[in-house]
Give the backbone structure.
Amino acid sequence: MRAAAAHHPSSLLLAAACALAGCEGRPEQPPAGAGEPRRGGTAVLGTVVDVDNWNEYLSQQAFANALHRRLYPRLAREAPPEPGQPPRFEPELAEAWSFSEDRLALTFRLREASWSDGNPIQASDVRFTWRAQTSPEVGWINASTKEHIREVEARDPRTVVFHFDRAYPEQLADAVTGGVLPEHIFARVPFARWRTHDWSSVRVVSGPFRLAAYRPAEEIVLERNPGYYRAELPRLDRVVFRIVPDISNLLTQLLAGHLDYVDKLPPWEAARLERSGPVRIVEFRVPGFEYIGWNHRREPFDDPRVRRALTLAIDRQGLVDELLRGYGTVCAGPVPSWSAAADPALEPWPHDPGEAERLLREAGFARDSEGRLVRGGRPLALTLATNAGNRLREAVLVKVQEQLRRLGIEVQVASLEMAAFRERNAAGDFDAYVGGWTISGRALRQLFHSQMLPPRGANIVAYRSPRADALLERLDAAKTWEQALPVLRELQRCLHEEQPYTFLYEMPLLAAVAARLQGVSPGPPDDPLAHLEQAWIAVP
Amino acid sequence: MIRYACGRLLSAVPVLVAVATLGFAIVEFAPGDAVEAWLGERAVPPEVRASLERAYGLHQPPWQRYASWLASLARGELGWSFSRSRPVREVLAGALPATLWLAGAAMLIHLASGIAAGLIGARFRRRWPDHLIQALVLTLYGMPVFWLGLMATLALAYRIPLFPPSSMFSVGMREAALLPRLADLLWHVTLPAAVLGLASTAATARLLRGGLLQVLGEEFLRAARARGAGPLRLWLVHALRHASIPVVHLLGMSLPVLVSGSLVVEVVFAWPGMGRLAYEALLARDTPLVLAATVLSAILVVVGNLLADVATAGLDPRVRVRRR
């Protein structure tokens, strides 16, 4: 599950923290003879999904968003991280920016750049984009990133000022979220008709690439935008995405030399390819985690001791080793372990069935003659569900069932069709489920505040903790990174102790890259295709 | 004959309405809704959800949406596909040619292999070529199509790279001149069409073999032989014509199956056709697209049956359309 769009004003610096650390990964080793970066050539990439909409503000899809960012850059983008430091941003369409003294106004100076049709990029485009982002008729799913922006003022053609209703640490990140659209093209269609307009024919862009051809369910062709403001980039002439809904077929094509790049690899395929394939595996850090959500509305999951015992009973490192083939990290909480916001003192709970049993005894459970844990004559039994078709989560169900059964806990497993799974979870009609969150933005309030039960928020497990609520409120009130960081770390400790979830692991995005495609290295965690700008085709 | 065909098509209208109604009900009463399916695992504020529902008319009660859809259909409009962000008409127009290429090629392969297998089976009845052919077609019939597709890909696209593993065209060939483009398309369609066509050869082969064995002792064949017809003419013209009547019926019924039921092959070979489209539309709860694909499939059933009847009338002198 994703908590991507469900932001709240002051909850935390997660986006910043994620941006801080995402750029490490296995360093790429160019094959012998790969040579220096050069221009020209076509890279062919595989994808299992098609683009859901060519208008960024009507799309909800990560893949589509990664392509939108190649066509419509932002005012600024996250810079490579520096451990322990607040997030930094690099200029894109804006060449400079500054805050007013009270931090309620943020002024951007736009660079001299043009749309691909020759019209200049102006402050009015930025203002128009903000109007689209916040229009209820458009219904952008990330509109909450703009909720503290009162007005966007086009002071002159190259100066744009964002006026905020309050100061908070993520002001810059919120201001630059979303690509800038050409007003003279997009304003031709009223916002009310955006959702029933076909945007695939728009060819006016400002990014490194432009859309050359789109054949639904078949192929997407991007070509170099000669008018891109960084004249030396991109290096590739064309990038072709082949849409193939089956990952096995994609891998066959990769191995047969028809494709240069495939991502979203299952870990077992990545391990197999890394052992034997003529391709290299690149790991992209993803700001997210997999977890088991316990339903706090039901006994005994309302007891933090029971939840911690269940966490201690599960061998999460074993899951990483066996199911993820080592491509992952056991996590201590919701904040990515590699981000600057993560509490370095926090260690994941170990696998300790003895301590788990002790905690369960403390909570009133005892073994009966059949070895089951019972309390008040009722055995500790639960149904653990997940969404059908997710092979990894289904494998987790079976492993966890086996491990909890060893402790005397009866576990039934269920794989449910996604809609039924969501409906059941939203209604609170479950014992426990295996899910995952990809966190972009400040999502902790959505996940853990007691007022954020569905449908208002994403606190599916109905976690109610006065301590966590108070910390989330304090995070909301923080004005700077320095003020927010200690509160955020205390919140992580609170979640670690109270275990609203059993935090399982963080899992990277795995990509297989053919030898001829060079320059592929992980970029910002929220932009897995950022490398396309720098990538090049090696001389055979 | 034309009046008969028109009458048959008109009588199919209530069937089409019934199919559309059933399709709508199935999509409508499944758990979740289109907005949930579109949002996937994302959590969004209620106001965003309300905005999405308004944009696609999902805030209206189901009967109202269905009535609007029927009214649009009567005007020749198929609505907006919210999963593809394009008009349904355009989405179908994009997928149908791909499917017709695949189904057409599969039908040819199916016919050629079925007739050949049926003839060999009947000619060499209970001898080793018959046993071999029967074993082969039944093995192909018994294999799951996805497995057959994957094995064919591994063997003939990867180990021995004779064919491309998927897609309809090679990179850049869409823009090529007509002949190279056609050649590229034929190269790409061969493997999926062979999988789709050969997987169902058994039914045609066995029907034809049985039919041929039945007519071999008939009087009209003896008469033809007495009139000096050679063995080739006897088998291919006289016997085959009679024995193929049930096969023609089967092929008529197979048309919609080939068009909309080729989902597995389309997924395995990344073929951008109707089967994949209908399946993805169903998962996305894209009601206008599901309904359009369902109605199109139902039309193909009607047309397939009609064509089978017409072909039967042409093949069998005993069948005549009653003229007024």
Observations:
- Residues 481-498 of chain A form the longest helix (18 residues).
- The radius of gyration of chain A is 24 Å.
- Chain A touches chain B through 62 residues (CB under 8 Å).
- DSSP finds 15 helices and 24 strands in chain A.
